[in-house]
Design brief:
By secondary structure, the chain is an alpha/beta fold. The protein is built from 3 helices and 9 strands. It has helices at residues 9-26, 42-51, 102-112, and strands at residues 3-7, 33-38, 57-64, 77-80, 90-98, 118-127, 139-144, 148-150, 166-169. Bound molecules: inosinic acid (IMP) and magnesium ion. The site of inosinic acid has 20 residues, from strand 5, helix 3 and strand 8.
Length: 170
């Protein structure tokens, strides 16, 4: 399988700093809970959280929908829930890549039903072509039209997560 670098590590790093700057100023005086959607988000999440200049708490959620293929199955199972009670809290849901939008739409709906003070979404990549459910991404890193991406946490059948750059499979 051929892989071509689409977004080099350096570009990712400066984008993460920029997103962290925006979040830090929007949440000045607050202490949001950042909720990472496992597993793809791990590298992005760690760099984002450490780049914030405000205090935060972190937690994780894991949904399964993809199996080992390239297309969303449409059914989302909550495999791991958050552990910090979210009622009355400011939540920022952090995702690696938004494709059909089904995962985020489902998870955000679920979190909203628990009456948090606010919910915003931060996604490193907004992949536009196959969107089925509208998702308002408040903090978006990169917009990509199409293609299957790997690296910087993103996998294809659990492979290539370790790559430091975001690559497209061709
Ligand atoms: P959605 O529910 O279709 O928006 O899918 C979102 C999830 O699918 C993401 O959290 C990723 O785990 C996975 N995904 C979507 N597109 C890609 C891709 O290009 N590379 C790797 N994973 C992807
Ligand atoms: Mg994911």
């Amino acid at each position: 399988m051929e892989k071509r670098v689409l977004i080099p590590r350096r570009e990712i790093q400066s984008k993460v700093k920029e997103l962290a700057g925006r979040i830090s100023s929007d949440y000045a005086g607050k202490e949001p809970i950042l909720i990472g959607i496992l597993n793809g988000v791990v590298f992005f999440f760690a760099e984002l959280v450490m780049s914030l200049s405000i205090p935060s708490r972190i937690d994780f959620i894991r949904a399964s929908s993809y199996g080992s293929g390239k297309a969303s199955s449409g059914t989302i199972n909550l495999v791991k829930d958050v552990e910090i009670p979210v009622k009355g809290q400011d939540l920022i849901v952090v995702e690696d890549i938004v494709d059909t939008g089904l995962t985020l739409n489902n998870l955000v709906g679920n979190l909203r039903s628990r009456e948090p003070a606010s919910v915003k979404i931060c996604a490193l990549i907004d992949k536009i072509e196959r969107r089925e459910k509208e998702v308002k991404i408040d903090y978006c890193g990169f917009k990509v039209q199409e293609g299957f991406l790997v690296g910087y946490g993103l996998d294809y059948a659990e492979r290539y997560r370790y790559l430091p750059d975001i690559c497209v499979i061709e």
